[in-house]
Specification:
- By secondary structure, the chain is α/β, with parallel strands linked by helices.
- It contains seven helices and ten strands.
- β2, α2 and β3 form a beta-alpha-beta unit.
- The model has no long low-confidence stretch (mean pLDDT 95).
- The structure holds 2-phosphoglycolic acid (PGA).
- 2-phosphoglycolic acid binds next to loops.
Length: 253
């Protein structure tokens, strides 16, 4: 696991975008797995900017969702599909079908999960998967207790996750309790992984992921067994690491 620490969330977003850009410059038709949440938004802004300035070509990339709420209309601003289209795919002018969706509104959710797995397999898998991490160590919506071999499926959201997601909804009753999520086994098959975290609320999850016991109780710890993981975090998220590398003070151009 390569761990890179920067002073600020802005620097994390910039460095993470540079990491994605390097991958896409080497492989313009890469398959990119997209996380949603507060953390990756800045990365998508940098990528959009680079695309609009002609520095980076995002038109050949194929995108895959990491997770989606169950029972949410994709036209609602809180749906992850809507967030990804709004924050990245529309601004770069991607074709609607450039995004392999997880349809949380499907009538047969297990069939939708299987369809996504088949689409991923026949596409040849993900080259670079972008991940955030929950305060309880989830990646995607794989909550503590998720099997390391789990595949894309319907999951129940942990109360801590429901509470954390409440900030995006008008009332507590509107916050989804279920989601479709790539499984831990699915995520582990991505050829490389870029995990981002900022803020002190993520410090415990980051130290458990890096230095804790690898166990389904601590879902992100599955990444200890992946050969190509880059973790880009700010100093606050790194504050509980016992063996923290020094904080990088500069972002290279
Ligand atoms: P956040 O979510 O980026 O909004 O903190 C991360 C996650 O729960 O995976």
């Amino acid at each position: 696991m390569d761990i890179v620490i920067f002073d600020t969330p802005d620097a994390v977003a910039e460095v993470a975008a540079q990491h994605v850009s390097r991958c896409l410059l080497a492989l313009p038709s890469a398959h990119l797995g997209l996380a949603t949440g507060a953390t990756p938004g800045g990365v998508y802004q940098h990528l959009t900017y680079a695309h609009q300035r002609g520095i980076l070509r995002l038109s050949e990339v194929r995108y895959f969702m990491l997770d989606e709420y169950v029972g949410i209309d994709p036209n609602k601003p809180t749906s992850f599909q809507n967030v990804l289209r709004r924050e990245l795919l529309s601004p770069i002018g991607a074709e609607p079908n450039a995004l392999e969706i997880l349809d949380g509104n499907a009538t047969d959710l297990p069939a939708e999960a299987e369809r996504f797995e088949n689409a991923l397999r026949s596409a040849g898998g993900i080259d670079l998967q972008i991940l955030g991490i929950g305060t309880n160590g989830h990646i995607g919506f794989n909550e503590p207790g998720s099997s390391f071999t789990s595949r894309t499926r319907v999951v129940e959201l942990h109360p801590e996750t429901v509470q954390s997601n409440a900030r995006y909804f008008n009332s507590p009753e509107d916050v989804p309790r279920k989601a479709l999520s790539q499984g831990l086994g699915t995520i582990l098959e991505a050829r490389s992984i870029l995990l981002l975290a900022t803020g002190g609320s993520k410090a415990h999850a980051i130290s458990s992921m890096v230095e804790g016991l690898s166990s389904p109780r601590n879902p992100a710890s599955i990444l200890q067994g992946h050969p190509d993981v880059t973790v880009v975090i700010d100093a606050a998220a790194a504050s509980l690491l016992r063996s923290a590398p020094t904080v990088a003070s500069q972002v290279s151009a």
